[in-house]
Amino acid sequence: MARGAVVRVRQGPAWRQGLPQSGAARLQGLRAVLQADGHQLILEEIPDWNTVELIVNGETVFRCNINELDFGGDGKLDPLCEEARKAVLNAY
Asked: How far is the C-alpha of 15 from the C-alpha of 81, rounded, in Å?
């Protein structure tokens, strides 16, 4: 897939330190990596706990536990962000 895809980023609430919280800070690096490739992101909240899904052209191309993403940062050193980036680039 060429750069500039529309990517739906579906995120569920996350447990952090025993409390339910928004996982938005965990998505900072993932969002930065995808936007750097020129992708347009559509953020969507879902009820599935600890879940992040990337959907391109109606197909789920990447899924992970939100707690496994690095907190904050630009995502360049997070191996999961690189895996997600490649999944979006290889989507059809």
From this structure: 20
Question: Using one digit for the tens of pLDDT, what is the confidence trace for 34-46?
Answer: 999 999 999 999 9
Cα-Cα-Cα-Cα dihedral sign, residues 87, 81, 64, 42? negative
Contact present, 46 and 56 (Cβ < 8 Å): no
Instruction: For each of the domains in the chain, give its residue range(s) and CATH number, in order of start.
Output: 6-89 (3.40.30)
pTM of the model: 0.89
Task: Find how far residue 6's CA is from the centre of its chain.
Answer: 13
* DSSP reduced 3-state for 17: coil
